[in-house]
Design goal:
mainly alpha, 3 helices, elongated
């Protein structure tokens, strides 16, 4: 089908063949081309979800450790340290 959109070729490697078989089981009524598009969309969704989960874990770790060293430094320590820095 003619299009002005970019196209790309994919060689049917063992990994691609496996993905297409999984897609066929999940979407048996879809055409091969539709399965490829759905696989790409599902992969993008999975990556986005993974990134969101990773960010949430990092934030949780920061929140869990926040303030653990409050007693390690006396009041005014940071201000005195900054006074020693050159402008």
């Amino acid at each position: 089908m003619p299009t002005t959109r970019p196209r790309f070729q994919v060689t049917e490697t063992p990994e691609v063949e496996r993905a297409l078989k999984v897609a066929e089981a999940a979407w048996p009524d879809a055409t091969r081309a539709e399965r490829v598009v759905r696989l790409l969309a599902a992969g993008a969704d999975a990556l986005e979800h993974s990134a969101v989960e990773q960010r949430a874990r990092r934030i949780a770790a920061v929140m869990q450790t926040a303030g653990l060293l409050d007693e390690a430094y006396e009041p005014g320590y940071l201000e005195r340290l900054r006074e020693e820095w050159r402008e």
